[in-house]
Every structure is written in C-alpha cells, then in structure tokens.
Amino acid sequence: MSEAQSEASRVLGGRVRDARVALALSQEETAHLAGMNVSNYGKIERGMGNPSLHTIVRIAAVLGVDPGGFTRGLRGDQLPERRAVYTAADYVRERERERRERRS
User: Fold this and answer.
1) Measured between alpha carbons, how far is residue 103 from residues 22, 57, 91, 98 in Å?
2) Cα distances (angstroms) measured from residue 62 to each of 25, 38, 46
3) Largest alpha-carbon pair distance within the chain?
4) Most CB atoms within 10 A, among 17, 39, 70, 89?
5) Domain 7-79 listed as CATH 3.40.50.970
6) What are the residue ranges spanned by the domains of the chain?
C-alpha cells in the first residue's frame, strides 16, 4: 500500500472517513452522493488524493459536517517538503532589509 501524500492529507482523509463511518455509509455511497468517482474518493480517505476546495465542501455537505472541521489545525509543516519554504514574515523581513540596503 502506498504512503499518504503528506501528514496533512492523511489527517484530512481520516477525518473524512470518520464522518462517513459515523453515518454508516460506504465509500461508494458517499462518492455517488458527492458526484465523484469512488476510486478518487477512496484516494482522499487514504491520504493519496489532493482534493480541491470544491471537493472538500461537496463531501462535507454530503456528510452534513462543517468543511472547516476537515482542515482544522493543519499546519504548513504537515505538507510535503519543498526546497525552500518561506513565510510571509520572512518575505517582508527580507524586503525591508533590501530597502534599507538600497538607501545606504
């Protein structure tokens, strides 16, 4: 079995699965209600998919939950690694440093 795309994908998928199981729905039933292919839906639950915002909202509506609950508490460090990850604060700090250097 393949690994999840990221910790964030794994967490989101687990939350989707928990909401579905609480309603005693199958993956096939949930995918059908959400207008999705069951294979793609299953990938989301396994953390192998990267659903769009519209897909997350659609699944949440079918399951009768707040879509924010699926993503609550997820952080940038739970995403796949990138070569360089900068925060907005890093960017602003560097921009200000460059402005000060130009004035000198």
Assistant:
1) 61, 48, 19, 9
2) 11, 14, 19
3) 67
4) 70
5) no
6) 7-79
